[in-house]
Amino acid sequence: MFLVESKAGAIGCMLVSLLLLGTWPALLTLLERRGRLPQHTYLDYTITNLMAAFIIAFTFGEIGSTRPNFLSQLSEDNWPSVLFALFGGLMLSLGNLATQYAIAFVGLSVTEVITASMTVVIGTTLNYFLDDKINKAKILFPGVGCFLIAVCLGSSVHTSNAADNKLKLDTLSNDNKNEAGHEDTSTSRELNTTNINERNDLESGTTAPKKAEFGTACFLIELEDKRSIKVSDRSIFFGLAITMFAGACLSLFSPAVNIATNDQWHTLKDGVRHLTVYTAFFYFSISCFSISIILNVSFLYYPLLNLPKSSLRAYLGDWNGRSWALLAGILCGFGNGLQFMGGQAAGYAAADAVQALPLVSTFWGILLFGEYRKSSGKTYVLLVAMLLMFIVAVAVLMASAGHRKK
Predict the structure, then answer these.
(1) Where is the composition biased (Basic and acidic residues) (predicted)?
(2) Dist. CA 57–CA 72, nearest whole Å
(3) Which helix (H) or strand (E) holds 153?
(4) Which of 25, 45, 232, 258 is most exposed, with the fewest beta carbons within 10 Å of its own?
(5) Spans of all domains in the chain
(6) Contact, 332 vs 281, CB < 8 A?
(7) How far lies 226's CA from each of 3, 34, 77, 95, in Å?
(8) Mind listing the pLDDT tens digit for each residue in 143-201?
(9) Is 64 helix (H, G, I), strand (E, B) or coil?
């Protein structure tokens, strides 16, 4: 079994985990905005997420002379710890599933900030006490306070940006009406003629389709028409409620794995060895996979949020974007595994610093999806304040890292 024992090695695991965990939600968002059903995407993601756990268990969990290794623990009487690992997988599965729907309503950047901040506020506090206070409390808890402030700023950014988008759409609607309140038919005919000409040009190969500029009302309308989850008629508080539920679930999976690997509650019989981080992660991923399969197969036939019905046959035949969904599962699986490897060495409370993943997600959200383009000055100020507070919080959390005794 390979062990990360140094603080530098633990921080290295956290940084790589940060990049991976900040990227996979962007891939799922990309597919949802292209119209792929989230049930199809999540089933693909779940398969490779489990595959990552197998790869980690049979490589890092088996190499080296340190014992116990992964395979030897599968036959031991360690079921109390296994149950904690299974519970952690359940929480992650529900949290990630809710996150996928929350991103459609709240946006990639703000969703990741709110869920990550809640994970730190709740999960880091639990991990601090579970780890026998090996992290520096005078540094750790001011960082937790900064994350809590980031949650409030994230909600404000979403509310402000939603108001900006509503104003853009209202302005476009008013521009298409004449002074008497009726639609300007000449404008409508002109738009229809333009669309017909564009289609004819496309068929003849003489021009490229025109795309609406990021941040404009036309872009918002096009996006709503393409995406699989329709959000225009939903309250902003509905999206925030899903986001808060996702954050509450995600805040519990790391403490559960902490208990599974360190047995702070002394549930194992005398002489039974603690689960290695690789064995715990394996059971954790099995649980996550099982719950995801059950829920998403059900959602194929009984979809949420007025999504169209699907079937297993339709899912198996849907190859549009499947490679991106499979890649997302690999990234998430290795990201979680590296987070646990770093947490076992430097304390799970410090490992929660990987919740800086919204910094990566915000980069992808702005670069790929045009989030916050042409928004108001108020929204930009809140967005910058949110990210700055988040950076400070993560830096403080990293500084609180300790070293677990063997």
Answers:
(1) 176-187
(2) 12
(3) helix 137-175
(4) 232
(5) 8-68+76-169+224-399
(6) no
(7) 47, 6, 52, 25
(8) 888 877 877 787 788 788 888 988 888 888 776 664 445 544 444 444 444 444 444 44
(9) coil
